[in-house]
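Re: the request from the purification team.
They wanted to know what the chain is likely to look like in 3D before they choose a buffer screen. I agreed to run a prediction and write the result into the notebook, where they can find it.
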Amino acid sequence: MFKPVVLIAFYLATFELAPAAVLAPHKKAKAQASVTIPLTRRKKIGLTQVKQKSGHKKGQASEYYGVVTVGSPAQKFSVVFDTGSGNLLLPSKECTDEACTSHKQFDSALSATAMQIAYADQPSTPVAADGSRDVVTITFGTGEMSGVYVRDNICLGEGDLCCKADFVAATEESDEPFSLVPFDGILGLSLPQMAEGPAFSVLDQFVGAGALQQSLFGVFFGNEGEQSEMTFGSYKAEHTATEIFWSPVTTPGYWQVAMDDITVDKQGLGLCNDAQHKCQVAVDTGTSLLAGPSEVVSALVDKLQVADDCSNMQSLPDLGFIVGDHILSLKAEDYVAQHSDRCSLGLMSLDVPPPKGPLFIFGDPFLRKYYTVYDRQNMRVGFALAKHTVQNGDVSLAAMRTRHERRHKHRLRQKHGHGRSSHA
């Protein structure tokens, strides 16, 4: 069983906003439309921390992935929808590595609208006759991928919404981590500052094409037994148990907002006392845990005292994050990582150097608790308590209680059984 890890990376280059996208002549976006993409949840995919090279992006260990189609006619891929990265990454047919061939591969020769792009800063210029072009190398903690730039139609779901955008087609992939994941690629949904260039920001290309009813998308991460989904062009009020409140993006790139403090049982810990620079949080659908600076994580480990054997789950306090005038609270079943009958604080150390850091990450545990909306036009993130039909921890907590009772009875039998003699 793999231990889930937080995967995060940082791209420091900045770009101007993307120009209006141009749709392929045969494929027109539905004006003022929205589309909902069902997501598959995969529990505990184990990959290692990404290492960055030349500012390029990351690989993923996210539990949630859905479908996009690329090309004409459409080729279907399963991808992680990742608000913490900026590019679409797909394995290409030119890649003969097993990590590629074990997944769906994009075949540009089969697409009438595919254009091979030479350079990221010339996103609409095809490769010249001499074949000169950039090869991008992206390095991960346990491997790497290399790829080239391609421009084609990219459609959400089964082709409901389409635009023209650039993406990275992998020509080489190492076995790890790519052979370990069930999805084919990654669709970055960060703000365009984290993309290879404006034309690589798929979200901005949809916005520029006028394809979306509203320039935003909503994310519902379900508990086990629920259908997870992302809605582009609108958001679904039926997934919210409270009214949405909005927090402005503080630094474009990540969907990053300010946090005033962290609380334990609604008592502030004074961890964000710098009035000039409040704590910063990236809301990241591609991160499997919560994350924060080492010193803060250590303080929380000491403060919360999560028992390794899960014996104090029922008495653990709420963990809260103050954003605006709201405390976004997580209960123990939300912030504790449970592995069989073992428990640990689901919060990983992540030390991001200035000027990007220090930075906290709201990953999957937070996103299951709160429905989030990413508003491109108004540069803000919306939060509401998610409305679940299946409550997180109901099954696992009951199972843990049963295991604890069995272990306790077993210990008692062992204790009182010493020195006994049997009588016929």
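For the purification team: The chain has two domains: 35-220, 237-388+396-402.
Please add any questions underneath this entry.
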